[in-house]
Amino acid sequence: MIFVYCVDQGVGEIRFMTRGLIIVIIVLVQPPSFSPTALRLTDTFKKGDDLDSLINEIFEEPDFDKKTFKLKSKSSGNTSVRASIQGVGKSCSPVYLGGSTAPCGIGTNISQRACDHLRCIACDFRIVSYDDYMWDKSCDYLFFRNNMPEFHKLKTKLVKKKGARAYACQCSWRTVEELTDLQMDHQLRWVCGKH
């Protein structure tokens, strides 16, 4: 629940207070002759109690999605190079699982890489993977339910196997030796959790 109070005290600032689940926004407004921003806030409030537009105006951040990053070039000490950070917020398409010889990263049709940011939509756990291990045949649902994600507990059912990669969440597990498209395994409810 959000309450907005508009108080004319000549201060011209916005204060936020929280009391449990209630957010109280107090707008302290300068007289209209002092600040065009305060004038806009008071006019918006007086024009028909349009609280949604007032709250949206308070929380707006211009050009939030258009931030650029500058990275220093390693080849020349003082030259800065404009670069976008590759992979921020991107998902694999298609999603691949792979053995320990398969490279990890963002998987595409061209760059076939095993996803290392998997998440299970059934149990909402992050998928763990262990290179050069496979799951023992005696693994069951309760073992993973009780021991995820602690490696020192899981290692009791991990068997060394060069080239394999053991994947698990709290409800499912797989051992993979070759690069495999996740869509081929209809029992797994794993998705790329974005990179």
Overall description:
By secondary structure, this protein is an alpha+beta fold. Helix content is 16%, strand content 32%. It contains 4 helices and 12 strands; from the N terminus they run βββααβββββααββββ. The strands form 5 sheets. Strands 1-3-2 form a 3-stranded mixed β-sheet, covered by helices on one side. Strands 8-9-10 form a 3-stranded antiparallel β-sheet, with no helix packed on it. Strands 4-5 form a two-stranded antiparallel ribbon. The protein is globular and about 65 Å long.
Total helical elements: 4
Rounded Rg: 26 Å
The biggest sheet amounts to: 3 strands, mixed
Strand order of the largest sheet: 1-3-2
Task: Report the strand count.
Answer: 12
Name the poorly predicted regions: 8-13, 34-39, 41-48, 61-87
Helix content: 10-25%
Shape: globular
Query: Mean pLDDT, nearest integer?
Result: 74
Descriptors:
single chain; alpha+beta; three-stranded antiparallel β-sheet; 4 helices; 16% helix
At a glance:
This protein has 195 residues and is α+β, with helices and mostly antiparallel strands. It has helices spanning 36-46, 51-59, 141-147, 151-154; strands at 2-8, 13-19, 22-29, 69-72, 80-83, 96-97, 118-120, 128-135, 158-168, 173-176, 180-181, 190-192.
How are the secondary structure elements laid out?
Elements: E1 2-8, E2 13-19, E3 22-29, H1 36-46, H2 51-59, E4 69-72, E5 80-83, E6 96-97, E7 118-120, E8 128-135, H3 141-147, H4 151-154, E9 158-168, E10 173-176, E11 180-181, E12 190-192
Parallel strand pairs: 1-3
Antiparallel strand pairs: 2-3, 4-5, 6-11, 7-12, 8-9, 9-10
